Amino acid sequence: MTVAVRTDSLPGEDYRTNRLLMSLAVSLAVVLVLSLWVGWVPISPRELGEIVRAWLGASTSESMESKALVFGLVRIPRALVTALVGMGLSAAGAVYQGLFRNPLVSPDILGVSAGATFGAALGLVIGATGWFAIQSLAFVFGLAAVGMALLIARLVAVRPMLVLVLAGLVVLSVFNSSLTLLKYLSDPYNELPAIVFWIMGSMSRAQWSDLRVVAPIIGGSLVMIHIMRYKLNVLSLGDLQARSLGLNPTLYRLLFIAFSSIIVSVSVATCGQVCWVGLVMPHIARTLVGPNHEQMLPVAVLLGGIFLLLADTAARSLTMAELPISVITAFIGAPLFAYLLYRNRGSGWS
Amino acid sequence: MSLACQNLHFAYNGHAILTAVDLDVNAGEFCVLLGRNGSGKTTLIYCLAGLLRPQKGTVAINGLNLAAASRVEIARQVSLVPQEHADIFPFKVLDVVVMGRTAMLGFNQRPGNADYLAARRVLAELEAESLADRNFNRISGGERRIALLARAILQAENTLLLDEPTNHLDFNNKYRLLAKIKRLCLEKGIRIIASLHDPNLAAQFADTVVMLSDGRVLASGDVHTVMTSERVSQLYQTPTRRIETDDGETLFVPCLPEKESKARLCKGENREWT
Fold this sequence. Notes:
- With 350 residues, chain A is mainly alpha-helical.
- Chain A has one domain (65-342): ABC transporter involved in vitamin B12 uptake, BtuC (Orthogonal Bundle).
- Chain A has 14 helices and no strands.
- The two termini of chain A are 40 Å apart.
- Chain B has 274 residues and is of the alpha/beta class.
- Chain B folds into two domains: 2-227, 3-Layer(aba) Sandwich (Rossmann fold); 228-274, no CATH class.
- Chain B contains ten helices and twelve strands.
- In chain B, strands 6-7-8-3-9-10 form a six-stranded mixed β-sheet, with helices on both faces. In chain B, strands 2-1-4-5 form a four-stranded antiparallel β-sheet, with helices on one face. In chain B, strands 11-12 form a two-stranded antiparallel ribbon.
């Protein structure tokens, strides 16, 4: 039997996605550079050149030195941390949506954010010294929350995905109530405002020391998720089909949850809760290149970085006082999400 | 080169589903499982796919003992078209078909151009090439069956397990799908085990038939010798007539007790059954 096979369409599709990825990567770089410019202390391109020359050893004026400090010690690490957190949260969102076969799932579903937030609040109340102690507590409690959800699901051991969602709900509400209790017991003049501001989320705490921790952890997890991303397609068919196709769903699900949870924990530990990135960016990516995670995941990652950089730039330059970044992401993300739901209404979701 | 299952026992929470099932299916054979709802057809298929571990007995496919084999090893030998398919992300049909290559891919690998080409080729062989770029959630039930069949062929050209492939298909599509499956058996020498609800379809397409009743094999063997009116009557617990048409086809028609006239017609033929 002779079979004619069309071969022309494959490279064409690859080419289209590659072009989109390239333009998104360029946009990310442009937004990154732009966010270094914008802010309270205006730095012009000419001054930027001078700062770079000063780093290379040329002598500069007094006023330039303070600008160089703002630029080198505040804006660069902040922009890099923001981009990484945005990319990481978007990847985590895409992973969770694939695993739970539900486009309305965000990385919070297994209680990571709630656990991490509780950990940070605990650190603030018991008077842990230094950001590092508080961040470590946030990180550990974030992972502990997911661990508890996984353990409960493992003990129940039927209908794995459904039980996992319910277990996540249990863990989430336990940590949320514990947080409320902490707030209630805390000193209302110092600790309570500290907790509240911490939860609102802000990139303003990001320093080089944070970047040294955040970059390898989020970067490494992103690389792992990127490498394994094709398996998300198979996992999204459900356990039975994944197994009959020759994939161990339990193992891969555990790996994906572990790397995503690490990303979310580190993000919450560094800059508090940032909502909507992990929910909306994968949606936009799916609208642009379809649901295949091979293409969709890198697109979502780049979009997440761009979105959070823009949101952070807006948060610190729209008004005199810095706005909480979650306010910005929610104001942009929520209407965008509603619009996407409207646009994608015919794509076959039930 | 055969699929052999010996003395298979499977119980779920102490409730026996399969008891002492023996099965032997050669390469290129189309074997149909018949039985009433709850007779254990799906459980048997899942045991053969290595998705359920039987408490007793062995399943071996071409010498590979499923109890000792890894998921990947099993998946390279046996593929399954499941009965229900929940709505998924709006993948393209081609993306769904190419997932048949999962067992060939390592930890960090994803399907390449060769895999996508192979997927298109299988779709073309099933005369469904035009489906490739369509949204899997938006095609008809019959087209979905074809797409999943293509995925299964891409996965393993050795043994295909089909769990009620004709469910929800219309009259015409049932025959077309089974004709395609039958052709696969003949052309590629693929061993196919399918559960069906309609004894007429089995009589028309199967090489061998296994009748399951309450998790036990009631009868098994060549389709013409096994499918007598007595056995079919006993299997479905409904008096059934066997009719030979002029052109050699066999038909089974139930005689419902409320239809007096038909029951009378059956009487002569089915005396042994009651």
